[in-house]
Amino acid sequence: MKQRLALAGLALAAALLAGCVAREEPAAPPSATPLPPAATAAGAPLATPDAAPRGPLTDAEVVALLDRAVCWRADPALAASCLPPDADALAAIAAMGASQDRRFVAPLIDMRWLDLGWDGAIEDALEAITGERRDAPVAWYGLDSGAPLPPGYAQWKAALLSITATAATSPRFAELLRPLEPDDDMVRLLVWTGVQPNGRPPLTSPAVVHRLEAGYLGTDDTVYGLFVDGEARAYPRRVVAWHGAVNDVIGETPLLLAHCLPCGGAVAFDRHVEGEVLRFGTAGLALLGRTLLFDEQALRLWDTFAGVAASGEQAAAEQRLRALPLVTTTWGAWSTAHPDSGVLSLDTGFERDYAPGAAVTAELAAAAPLYPTPLYPAPATGPLDARAPVLGIDVGGAQRAYPVGDIEARRVVHDLADGTAIVLLSEGPGLGTRAYAAGDTLIDRLVREDGAPIAVDVEGERWFVNERALVSTLDGRERPRLVLRQGYWFAWRGPHPQTTLWGGGS
Question: Smaller CB count within 10 Å for the chain: N or C?
Answer without folding.
Answer: C
